[in-house]
Amino acid sequence: MTRTRMRRRKRQFLLVATCILIIGSTAAGGFWWRQGKRQTPLEIGLAAYGRNDWPAAEKAARTQLKYNRNDTGALFLLGRSLFRQTRDDSASAIYDRLPVETMTTDDFYLRGMAFLRAGLAEYAILSWRRALGTNPNHVETLVALESTFSRKDLLIEAARAATSLSSQPGWKARSDLMLGRIRSEQGDAAKAVDAFFLALEQPDDWRGLDTPERVRKQLVRLLLKLAKPALARKEIAKLESPNDPETCWLVSRCELQEGKKPDAAVQALAGGYRRSHPMEPEPSPYVGEGACGQCHKAEYGTQHGSRHARTYWRKQQFAKLPFPENAFPDPGNRKVTHTFHNRADGLEIESRVADQAFSNIVDYAFGSGDRGLTLVGHDQEGRSHECRLSYYAEPIGWDVTSGHPIADDLPPELYEGMLLTGDAVRRCFVCHVTSSFAALNLAGPAASDHAIGCERCHGPGANHTKVIGENIGGLPKNADLAIARPTMARGAAIVVLCAECHSPRDKDFGLSPGAPDSVRFQGTTLTWSRCYTESGNMLSCVTCHNPHRNAEKRHEVYEARCLECHGNSSSVALEKDAKPGRTASTAANPCPVQPARNCIECHMPKVKTTMAHSLFTDHFIRVHRAADLALEPTLRSTH
CA 494, CA 315: separation in Å to the nearest integer? Predict the structure, then answer.
């Protein structure tokens, strides 16, 4: 072999060896590089959390904590994953170990959801407010706040959350849908219509919150409430079920407002819908109680003389109240005085606390005066206040408003009264007038009603007056009168209607048998009684009360009602002849103590509550024992 060939082979060998070395080094480097970049359990868990795989995120977090039990990131990940799986006790135990200042928007949102599931809505709202403090555009928090505020009847706050949500990409249609519901609940039909029209442009973005069919029917109702039948008819044409009874009922209302008569098939289905929904308010404008009184003179006269018609007082009525002529000492602190002044802009209450003075102009008052009358006004900054003093029936007179603190070391501003949100003021109107929207905005005929008028229970009456006006010669039997008719409803539906005011408007109030304040809310407590649950859906508020009159005070009137079901078996018909709701078993077992009298004193006594100077009849009909009556707190009177 020549020397030249040997040198060539040596170079080839060196070249191959070099390539092998380079390839091996690269492979080894890649291997070690990959080993160095291998994801930690925490990184794996965060990735799983990001794709909503909560169990995988939990597993990875627990793996990470095996190496370091105090790893803050792993603890937060574990807590979040547990919250997402609604394992709130375990998650909360973890969060209790973590510093609040390191919590993120997601953490505050999740803790709020846990509070909500535990029935602690107020704590949930506080937690969500902190979430928005770190990120005002957090979608989940905005949705949670809107939903919770709506459920709690805090509609101004709900609308604010829904409006904020509308600026988030992909959420405008859902926000418009929420706003439509909120405005409708507030009684603002015009704004509700605008919101629903916008929402219906993109129903695919509602995320399952509702269906276009249901929303469009609600929109039709609102348009008819605004007396816009032509627009309502256009929306009806877009419905997928043109021949169902509800749609035919809406068509009949369009034609009624247009002065047309629907064909027989539509009219038959519409009448059937109305008969099966006797309590549904008409999609119609209000006409005011004066229009009702033109035909229903007897009912109007008695109702107008009842306390229902005196539950709201306007400024011009204040002159009837016996206001103190001189400075009136606060019943909770005699060093504080309240003085009433008649000013050009209305009645002013000036409260003096040491060297400070607070003043409120009284806007209106709530209450019939039978138990009390509470004043509501505004301060110089326009904020609403429930005034510190209320007027109670004689011989009590002026005293601290129920629910206001009584102490001699209160913050000075509390002596002018308690601040009220706009929602709190609206809720007062809801139960004290025919239409809260009409009264607050001085809009429409219902704004002139004295207080609770006919249309509060029977619904708006313009459709009804149109039916009557077009049938002056008389209506056929069982005709559709285009008005809500409680007399055609059964027990539960009537109780629900009465409970709109005679039960807490705050759904989280937490009524329970034995709670001192439960007796104030007869629309709830009646439903706890066996008389109600075993009546076959026949017992209701109007079994004993005429809603057009004041409640009877004579016990024998109510005892006669009791004895219709619980009378002596020898004088009560057999079950087959008994009235609806009465059975042979109840008839055969009258009270063993006093079978024919004193039913009310024993089973529905008047009891005290935390509401000042007031007794309420307990409608949770049952045997009252000493332990039951022990719940009555001693009420303080300063007079």
Answer: 33
